Amino acid sequence: MVGRSNVGKSSIIRELTGKKVVVGRRPGVTRRITRYNVGKMDIVDMPGFGFMSGVPRFLQEKIKTEIVRYLEKNRNNIVFAMEVVDARSFSEIAERWQQRGQIPVDVEMFSFLKELNLRPIVVVNKIDLIPKIYRDAVLDDICGKLELPPPWHQWANVLVPVSAKTGEGIAELKKIIKQRMHDLGMGRYLGWLK
Ligand SMILES: Nc1nc2c(ncn2[C@@H]2O[C@H](COP(=O)(O)OP(=O)(O)OP(=O)(O)O)[C@@H](O)[C@H]2O)c(=O)[nH]1
Ligand SMILES: [Mg+2]
Questions:
Q1: Within a domain: 72
Q2: Residue 50: pLDDT above 80?
């Protein structure tokens, strides 16, 4: 489970597993790579990359390097990755990076996950904060930035809007996870997912 700080990675793990996962209001709550055992598998909660309150910049860089190294080292043992983005702030932050001529860190991470063959699912969290009439536009925009040609509906097995707060979309996310696991012949390891 990767993504910028404060996007709701830990909250989603809590929703999926019912485990007591520490979440928090400020970016930088999860500071270490944390494994939650779910039967024969682990769900791995990563620290967020990008801004973290009270964490100096060099340490933020160090955390990003740590995440990249972990993914490279364990690529053969990772069934798939989930990259969480914040529905409300993703586009604005990405545009700020693009204006500076840089590739947004979450866009870079998405390519990296694909390169490593980790079949990333993009979980667009905090969808509760987007009024219903704007949701398609927001999701199309996120797709475009990730180089998945819109409309977003055609990526329904890659990108899923959810709210860890209201539970909206969690059933769809579970469906995608189940499908992936079945496709890989790993359906018997799904006991943890209700
Ligand atoms: N409105 C809303 N808030 C959410 C949602 N999911 C998480 N939050 C809130 O967002 C904040 C961050 O949640 P976390 O789950 O700790 O986020 P994280 O990505 O694990 O953060 P780090 O560990 O700091 O990288 C908390 O205050 C959550 O309650 C959501 O779907 N909607
Ligand atoms: Mg966390």
A1: yes
A2: no
Ligand 1: lining residues by beta carbon, under 6 Å: 3, 5-11, 23-25, 27-30, 47-48, 125-126, 128-129, 163-165
* Number of domains, the chain: 1
Q: Separation of 102 CA from ligand 2 center, angstroms? A: 25
Ligand number nearest CA of 85 is: 1
Beta bridge partners of 86: 125
Range of the domain at 170: 2-189
Establish if 180 belongs to a structural domain. Answer: yes
pTM above 0.90, yes or no: yes
Q: pLDDT tens across 157-178, in order?
A: 999 999 999 999 999 999 999 9
Domain-embedded: residue 49? yes
CATH number of the domain enclosing 48: 3.40.50.300
194 within domain boundaries = no
As a whole number of angstroms, the distance between CA 187 and CA 84 comes to: 23
| Cβ atoms of residues 4 and 86 within 8 Å | yes
Per-residue 3-state assignment (H helix, E strand, C coil) for 77-134: HCCCCEEEEECCCHHHHHHHHHHCCCCCHHHHHHHHHHHCCCCCEEEEECHHHCCHHH
Task: Take atom 9 of ligand 1 and give the residue whose Cα is closest.
Answer: 8
- Distance CA(20)–CA(14), nearest Å, equals 6
Reduced to 3 states (helix: H, G, I; strand: E, B; else coil), residue 44 is strand
